[in-house]
Amino acid sequence: MSGTTTADVRPRGRTTGPGANRWVVLVVLCVSLLLVALDATVLHVAVPAVSEDLRPGAVQLLWIVDVYPLVCASLLILFGTLGDRVGRRRVLLLGYGLFGVASAVAACAHTAEVLILARALLGVGGAMIMPATLSILRQSFPDRRERALAIGVWSAVAAVGAAVGPLLGGFLLEHFWWGSVFLINIPLMLISLPVGRMLLPESRGGADGPWDVTGAVMAAAGLFGVVLGVKRLGGGEAPASPLTLLPLLAGAALLVVFVRRQRRLPHPLVDLCMFRRPAFSTSVGCIVLAMLALVGLELIAAQYLQLVLGLSPLATGLRLLPLTVAAMAAGLLGARVLRRFGPRRMVAAGFCLTAAAVLTLTAMGGTDNAPLLLSGFVLLGFGLETTLFGAYESMLSEAPADRAGGAAAIGETSYQLGAGIGIALLGSVMNAAYTPRLRSVPGVSAPDAAAAGHSLGEAYDVADRLGGPAGAALRHVARDSFVHGLHLTLLVSAGLLLLGAVMALRLPRTMQCGAEAETVPGGAEPGVVRGGDGPGAVPGGAVPKTLPGGAEADAVPPVAGPVPGDAGPLAAEVPGPRPAEKPRVSA
Q1: Alpha-carbon dihedral sign for residues 300, 229, 429, 410
Q2: Cα gap 251→255, rounded to integer Å
Q3: Can you tell me the distance from the alpha carbon of 352 to that of 372, in angstroms, rounded to the nearest whole number?
Q4: CB distance 379 to 354 below 8 Å
Q5: pTM exceeding 0.85
Q6: CA–CA separation, 166 vs 579, rounded Å?
């Protein structure tokens, strides 16, 4: 079914035995995920305090917020493939250490430049942690059914981290200074580093041929340029701006050269043959399309709830809690749903359910409708998590076992790119519907109308400055225009989601489970797993049937689930918490 490679299993180093130990490994990995998810969102509520203390310029403030997800997205492939070579636990533990040091530097930063550097180092640490956790989880749960359940628990933790980040940040800011939002990482690291060293199993992929250092750097630079260009487009920058166009073109050119290089190498950094498998390429496409469509949630969460309905940041967080709870429930039920319905029906149904939620939210108006928002957010959280859970499982099921880290990095990168492209696309739709109506408000000059057209927050600022009938008219028109643009944006999102449901029909119909050849005699799980055909690969001397090219005919492929990512800068001007950046369960 899948193209998994024959595994050479040797009981080296620490191993995870049967029973409870692998569930302890799951707890350690969930703490890792919680750390990354918290750091992706906890800074948002601290931005005003950081601005007041460090006095950064507008560009510096943008880099403080966005450099973490930008660096993290750029380095996922590099560290995912490096972990396959040198050891996934080793890369994970190094990421723990770097994350802790960078958190201390960020908490004690006295200048904007130091804080930007510390946030960049946090991005490096996050890129080391995320692919490694998926790979170790795959090796610790050789049974596909157990692994799917573990992934459900793991992804539910992502929802918790994404939701708790802004709330925890707000609590800390009420009692301490802004640097405390970074200090919470240090106790988690002090616990995770020794515990991870003692309990986590080491695993590696195939080590044939040298690691393509040039290709790794090329991929990192290319992704950095593309993500930077997409983020600037999503932030409202002109497409023809040199600072937007040049990184985008240079990054795209580097990625094209990277792909050509990988096709020529006998031992490529990324196995591009995986994309020839319909299930793998379709799953990647579903992930991109889901995130491309769902970034409209940012407009709802940050701008609609706070600026249109006038809710406080705390009330906004409480309104979004049902979405998080629904996503957690979908994650915990994901394994059962996948076994019962299979990837095809699970992902297609998740897309349809999410589209129904988005269409439900188009009934929002200028007044608060709590039951409507509750039902829409519950459907949205459950549908999105269902979609991403099934898509990730299908994608990584088709990846060779010795390329688990690289496959996980591809999934996370597709998530990041989908969110970034969606911000640029849906942001353009929103601006096209919002801006024209502000040009003909009586008593408002052209410069004021242009400033009000940047965002609803700026429109309110201009209206307050103008005052009188002109200010009141501008506020009313801007509010109605925003709601109109939001409706149009949600309709476009629903169309993309329905397109994803059609795309999902190419996924496998059933979840095929069987005995994997990844245990040593006696039932103990492997300590170090290497791709290859060495002795001892299969207990009892059984040799898996192979297809031409070395792919196994009957092996059950690896499974992994969603990880957190960046949601982008749509709500940058809105006070209070922004929507969650990287959970793989809710936007």
Answers
A1: negative
A2: 6
A3: 18
A4: yes
A5: no
A6: 9
